Amino acid sequence: MFFVASKVFWLLAQPLGIVFLLMLAGLIALLAGRRRLAVAGLVLALLVHGLVSFTSLGFLLIQPLEARFGVPAEPPEQVGAIVMLGGATLARVSTARQVAELNAAGDRLVTTLWLARRYPDAPIVLSGGSGLLSGDTESEATTAERLLVAHGIAPERLRLEGESRNTDENAALTRDLLAGVDGPVVLVTSAFHMPRSVGLFEAQGIPVIPWPTDYRSSGREGFGIDIANPVHNLDVASIAIKEWIGLLAYHWTGRTGELLPSQASNSPAGTSSR
């Protein structure tokens, strides 16, 4: 129920959804003869669209998330397991063509492959089902398995969790796959997604070493007009807003102990921003 509610809510709460609703409200007001309300709705729609598409607002929102955790300053000599969260592949294309088609978060798989070779004895947990409300697609874990095996990773090292539909379920369903693991657990996901992921894994009693990847900002952007790539600006803003909403929702519903997990609350291994 939480999964469906969150998907429907985000459909309406994302910037494009808000712009659409404001324009729709403006049109209805215009047809009803409420000209001032119509103008107000259209002006608000224009303002929201302008802020997320033609300014650097999204980069400002995503920077604190990406800066929260960094890659380990001194990587451990050995690890007990490597966990990669889904979200790096295109489900429909990968399923239909039986390939591993990556999306903008494909760095998650690249980083996992690099870690798999750095720690050749560590089992690799691929956590990810389908985040789609409809459609018959294979799990993201299956798609990731295809890519890793094609790049020389032994199938027996891979443990697949293909039922989760969101980060909360990633953590809950991964817990059993980590039973008997001896040593620290490395968690791989996008940098902006790491705070929420660490909080949820800690809530399941799984201390992790964050290994963030897939950065969307340089960490040095200031606020200003940015017309070079409005589509990219909109994408970054949407990701950042969704992540902040997710942090609030999971904290308010008691799924995480802290609104924004701190560096000190994660594993004892040192980390550093990059």
UniProtKB/TrEMBL annotation:
Domain of life per record: Bacteria
Segments passing through the bilayer: 12-32, 39-62
InterPro entries reported in the protein's UniProt record: Cell_Envelope_Assoc (IPR051599), DUF218 (IPR003848), Rossmann-like_a/b/a_fold (IPR014729)
Keywords tagged on the record: Membrane, Transmembrane, Transmembrane helix
Keyword Signal part of the UniProt annotation: no
Gene3D superfamilies, per the entry: HUPs
Residue span(s) of domain DUF218: 81-246
PANTHER family: ENVELOPE BIOGENESIS FACTOR ELYC, INNER MEMBRANE PROTEIN, PROBABLE PERMEASE
Protein name as catalogued: YdcF family protein
